Amino acid sequence: MRPTTAQQTLSITAIAERLKHCGIAATRQRLRIAKALFEHGGHPSAQDLYQQVNHQQRTVCRATIYNTLNLFVDKGLIQEVSVDSSQTFYDGNIDPHHHIFNVDTGELLDVEPSTVSFKELPPLPKGTRQEDITLIIRVRNVQDKRWIAAEEKTLQ
Amino acid sequence: MRPTTAQQTLSITAIAERLKHCGIAATRQRLRIAKALFEHGGHPSAQDLYQQVNHQQRTVCRATIYNTLNLFVDKGLIQEVSVDSSQTFYDGNIDPHHHIFNVDTGELLDVEPSTVSFKELPPLPKGTRQEDITLIIRVRNVQDKRWIAAEEKTLQ
DNA sequence: GATGTGATTTGGATTGAGTCTAAGTCTCTA
DNA sequence: TAGAGACTTAGACTCAATCCAAATCACATC
Question: Which of A146, B2, B47, B51 is the most exposed, fewest CB within 10 Å of its CB?
Fold first, then answer.
């Protein structure tokens, strides 16, 4: 499992390059949003990004955040993650990968794709092709302290 | 893959039994909602069930639908499915199983668990235990007619 | 059967994520 | 530097879902 580490600060030029590569015209707002998303490194919601982008002064309005995130998803620059239906999360990592969702803390972790492999997958319905495949492992914090201790020992 | 077939009509007694088995007190409203859900057989939303239950006359209010579905999920009578973040779907099938979601049609199909198997799964974070694991295969309708014909031949 | 109590349901208000709209602003090309 | 199309904005709006306080129900006990 890959800890969701915050990326290094990215240059605006580098980000503009990535947008261009996906066929997205660069604007000041789009660059700010993309920068916030990539530097977040985790799985921010639209709300999170709105706050992040505007934390010093109001620079991007709410509608633009949503429009832009949808655009980024459509163009394949980022990925959308639906773990619980109350909010959508976004993921700057578009390599195929899976997620672990901690129901207790709301934490969402990336799973290194190399740690998951399938022996068998079902046939797709006629006339359809696979768009993507995601595995979500829902976990809960262990309550019993002795369990935790045992886990610690096993995993270290 | 198992087609999501509508169940036969279920007796109220049989449903009351299932509620009781999960520690849920039977009330008229709960029985109606459970019946609608199990007979639906697919993956209705709260909205769908509200309409289903009230299609002849208004018998159950919206708040009760939501309260009851949450209760059913908490008690393990039914399962919640988050495929797209705009709405929650419910599934009367609580055997562990996976889903195929058709992005174009919004259709959600159950996947027979025997057709999916894992070779390798990631270690869980320390101090957590697995609550559940779900695989969602997103598919899209094939555009090219020749492709469809080819698929038909292969799969028949 | 009557009574009391805690659980359940109700309607209506409220929340909050996300979308829509129409007007204003920017960007890029010529 | 002008014009046109693309982009952004504020604010109204939608809609799933929740909250709340009052009304109703179910059920045990007398």
Answer: A146
